[in-house]
Amino acid sequence: MSEASSTAINADPTVICRVRESFARQSFMATLGARLTRVEAGIVEIELPFRSDLTQQHGFFHAGSTASIADTAGGYAAYSVFPADSTVLTVEFKINLLAPAQGDKLIAIGSVIKSGRTLTITDVKVFSETRGQRTLCAVVQQTLICLIGKADKR
Amino acid sequence: MSEASSTAINADPTVICRVRESFARQSFMATLGARLTRVEAGIVEIELPFRSDLTQQHGFFHAGSTASIADTAGGYAAYSVFPADSTVLTVEFKINLLAPAQGDKLIAIGSVIKSGRTLTITDVKVFSETRGQRTLCAVVQQTLICLIGKADKR
Amino acid sequence: MSEASSTAINADPTVICRVRESFARQSFMATLGARLTRVEAGIVEIELPFRSDLTQQHGFFHAGSTASIADTAGGYAAYSVFPADSTVLTVEFKINLLAPAQGDKLIAIGSVIKSGRTLTITDVKVFSETRGQRTLCAVVQQTLICLIGKADKR
Amino acid sequence: MSEASSTAINADPTVICRVRESFARQSFMATLGARLTRVEAGIVEIELPFRSDLTQQHGFFHAGSTASIADTAGGYAAYSVFPADSTVLTVEFKINLLAPAQGDKLIAIGSVIKSGRTLTITDVKVFSETRGQRTLCAVVQQTLICLIGKADKR
Predict the structure, then answer these.
(1) What's the distance, CA A43 to chain centroid?
(2) Which residues of chain B have pLDDT under 50?
(3) Is D118 near chain B, with CB under 8 Å?
(4) If 0-12 CB within 10 Å is exposed, 13-18 middle and 19+ buried, where does residue C133 land?
(5) Separation CA C67–CA A96 (nearest Å)
(6) CB within 8 Å: C143 and A92
(7) Half-sphere exposure (CA, 13 Å, Cβ side) for C9?
(8) What is the pLDDT of residues D66-119, one digit of tens each?
(9) Looking at the DSSP assignment, which residues form a beta bridge with residue D142?
(10) Is C5 exposed, middle or buried (0-12, 13-18, 19+ CB in 10 A)?
(11) What are D72-82's pLDDT values in tens digits?
């Protein structure tokens, strides 16, 4: 993947690999043009470059496109701390949209707040970036479930 | 629009027209292949036919694609009861994913619970449909803001 | 309990009993003066008569008192469909406050939307009642976890 | 107030005073035994000493008592940055309960994430403390509305 060079290599290589492979199986991320730009144990970052076909009626990123990368960033932050023979599903999330999501790209940074045997809670911050300047545009609180023994693919 | 024939014509024609025009300006809805299938005062329905490029790693609709049509259905349910010279923005929403979102299509039905001068609260139910059989797969609680005097376009 | 007479006896008597006993162990409910007024399989209703010591700065029921009975109504709606040797914990909830919570009493009605092996999702509506007239004043979406083999007491 | 001595005096004294007076009008806080322990511009802290009459069936703080101080901490963090002739109401909040709320006391720390003319978004963290040791037990994301020209009392 072209973004590999920008990935922080702080986590177990196996974990990075597992998250990257799962991300690659999410065809919706490719449809959006989203890129996985950072994978660490408990932290995952996803970028979404602006495209006019991702927008709502005012020309901003649609709340759905913002929510999509936020859900994925939080989900993989959780998955990065799960055991090897497991998969992840989103139980629920709540997103507050703080400012118009506009600019060159969005950056969603998902972090694990608390990881339990069954449930993991994450916090995701989404920034919009215009010429290198970041503005916090959404915050998310999310609950994920760890399914042991279930494959992370169809 | 091809789905016009299936639209319930229960609301003021001006309202239906206003919602349809705004929906058509949301280029993200076209990217997803989402269709506006019902507009009434306080109720809006959106369908999303299955496409493999909308999925997550298990081949189900990605939570982001589910959330995208849910946000739009709730947002337009709110907008359908707003005054003429206004626009709508999502303040926040919370989504619970109840069952794998799989099948021929998703149907998001947004309904206004309470509409105030500034804020409107909606409830959205998302069903997955397989050969005509519907399963509730997500529920959403959403807060929208009415911006008076602001155009509903860029 | 004095409210027993107003309880709908539609559920398995064992379930009603189990919910009543657990409610009686929640000393916070007694502190608030909350009463369990209905227990059915998947539906639980709690009433909170007005007391000036439950209020916020405008003299309305504090959002915390509203949330407290909503959380309990949803939690016991879930518990009412759980197996016998289990207990219930709230994973998370989201509450929208729609109108000032004022009047003679609040009534929280919790209903199970989806019950799984591990997680159960409920919907709670809270009404304020003034001279028999009800107004919807809050809506809640809640996630509960079923803990098998763990006692429902200290 | 007896807790005055432990309050950080970092904010405009008028703001501190305004928040303290409003808190004192919330009779529900006195009912719970909650204390306002810190007021700064955009940050408010509330403590809730353990009392067995604030508990649920396992003897932990009831989620409603946790939510009550979290809602108040976030609400006053917002109110601390509002203009003088205004009041605050909670629009909605979402709480994730991360760990059993037990110990000597709970401490809720509310912080403003984004403050707009009409809506303010806060983040609240609730810690349980046992013999000086703090554990994060709940996280909240909350939306407040600023009502200009409306008195902050009945």
Answers:
(1) 9
(2) 1-9
(3) yes
(4) exposed
(5) 20
(6) yes
(7) 7
(8) 999 999 999 999 999 999 999 999 999 999 999 999 999 999 999 999 999 999
(9) D93, D122
(10) exposed
(11) 999 999 999 99
Distance CA B108, CA A149 (A): 32
Smallest CA–CA distance from A21 into chain B, residue: B57
Q: Measured between CB atoms, does D119 come within 8 Å of chain B?
A: yes
Is 0.90 surpassed by the pTM of this model?
yes
Asked if ipTM goes beyond 0.90, one says: yes
- How far is D60 from C153, CA to CA, in rounded Å? 10
Q: Where are the alpha helices (DSSP H) in chain B?
A: 13-25, 27-32, 63-79
Among D55, D62, D106, D144, the strongest candidate for a mutation testing the C interface, having the largest count of C CBs within 10 A, is: D62
Within 10 A of D149 (CB to CB), how many other CB atoms are there?
8
pLDDT for A95-144, tens place per residue? Answer: 999 999 999 999 999 999 999 999 999 999 999 999 999 999 999 999 99
Mean pLDDT of chain A: 93
CA torsion sign for D20, D23, D25, D29 is negative
Average pLDDT over residues A15-22: 95
C-beta separation of B32 from B47 below 8 A: no
Q: What does the block give as tokens for D68? A: 């009550």
pLDDT band of residue A9 (cuts 50, 70, 90) is very low
Task: Using alpha carbons, select from B30, B7, B27 the residue that is nearest to residue B17.
Answer: B7
Quote the tokens at residue B68: 């995208």
First to last CA, chain B: 22
Predicted pLDDT of residue D59:
97
CB-CB neighbors (< 8 A) of D145 in chain B:
118-119
**Greatest CA separation for chain D:** 45
Q: CA of B112: how far to CAs of A92, B125, C63, in Å?
A: 21, 12, 22
